[in-house]
Known about the structure:
Elements: H1 4-12, E1 28-34, H2 53-60, E2 63-65, E3 68-69, H3 75-84, H4 108-114, E4 118-123, H5 162-172, E5 179-184, H6 196-199, H7 217-246, E6 253-259, H8 274-277, E7 278-279, E8 281-284, E9 293-295, E10 299-300, H9 301-312, H10 329-332, E11 347-351, E12 366-370, E13 374-379, H11 414-421, H12 426-436, E14 442-446, H13 464-480, H14 484-487, H15 492-495
Parallel strand pairs: 1-5, 1-6, 2-9, 3-10, 4-5
Antiparallel strand pairs: 2-8, 3-7, 6-8, 11-12, 12-13, 13-14
Helix pairs in contact: 2-7, 3-9, 5-7, 11-12
Amino acid sequence: MRWRGLIVGLVAGGLAGCAGGSAGDRPNVLFAIWDDVSYPHVSAAGSKMVTTPAFDRVAAEGALFRNAYAPAPGCSPTRAAFLTGRHIWMIEQAGTHASSFPAAYVSYQDLLEDAGYAVGYTGKPWGPGRWEKSGRLRNPVGPAVQERTLDPPFRGIRNVDYAGNFEAFFEAKEEGQPFSFWVGGSEAHRAFEDGSWMAAGKKLEDAEVPPFLPDTPVIRGDLLDYAVEIEWFDSHIGRILEYLDEQGELDNTLVIFTADNGMAFPRAKANLYDYGIHMPLAIRWPGRGSRGRSIDDLVQFVDLTATILDLAGVAHPGGASAMAGRSIRSILESNEDGLVDDTRRRAYSGRERHSSSRWNNRTYPQRSMRTPDHLYIRNFKPLRWPAGDPQKFEADGSTLGPMRGGYHDIDASPTLTALIEGHEDESIGRFLELAVAKRPAEELFDLRVDPGCLNNLAGDPEHSTLLAELRSELDEYLARTGDPRASGNGEVWEEYVRYSAIRRFPRPPEAGDDY
């Protein structure tokens, strides 16, 4: 790879920092990531429908971050942005779903490995996508450790023994060697076993229905099935924490526990609304700051990348400017609650292609900027359908399928089925429209009173000054960070190859020059 020689040279010259020191000088890194879990759905954040003792332990022995934002509302671009410390519009193909991962963008795992760390992963790494198409020799997360399996309690839960594989990795590495290990849950990705919540002893009244979904028994049950999968992965991280404690390594380990994007429900995952990009995040960095703090600073995943390299004493070969984030070391080492670093007042996210959901495999380009109080969203192509074109061709390529059958940017689920089947009932249909109807070019939400992002203030004259200020600020930031959407080169996103199923849709009548 083009950057390998440069990195090795930096390490040999000592610029990577601590490359020849003892393991005690360099913290281990344990990164645990749920698949498709929104911020409210951990018990440390107040949820009653889930119990997450491992996540809660990390927060109680470290800090709970109440305003952590993912770089994208989908797994593949979020993971690539975190691995590189760069926004999705800064990493070309890796910034979209199921594409490739250019080797020019170095992974923090590779940097740590070159600095003497043992690296690896179990479960879900970067993906879906084809890393080998860019000349990489392995997944950018590192070598896989997947040998240990188990019998999952429900369908939809993966048979990977996440905790057992971490133990195998730890036992195989050199004694005293620092490690950086990625534990990637496939939970709570669809599909769930319908009714697993009953076997798990949950009750329908426990479900917490977000304001953008109707409150029905079907949807409550779907939410509780989701909760069961959250708890399963949490139990594995609990086992890993106990194992590290037994090995005497927990207090020399930076533990980061989070999720890649929001819950796989309509208007959450694959959307830049708060339930799509606001993530649970707990970090344990022992002995440096007070325990059990709750932090309100706006923190981005690209900040976490910079933090890992900072605490490990490893320099990025491109320098600090090669990453979009800033280390949160000062927050981790402080004794303060609430707002700790007043300079952290913005978080940025973006979306391009999620699934194959539109005519000619078109994207749905969006960018967002979170402020302490508001969420501003730019929809670059408002003529397109945000959840997918309503109608697609069947497998024969010529027969049109049913209306409302093309919403593939929403994961298939009992909830989506209930919304589609009830579309003629106003009490249900209005929620389907929230998820699938076309959206204006700009959206603005006051998250202090509207966490469900239901009241768009962009057309309100009382907010016109604020809207103009946020528009100008986002435009400037996107231009400064090289977003093709800001420079008139946005069509490049349509050219990136999708290495997954391509569906066929009829040409929309509105598909003109601005489509």
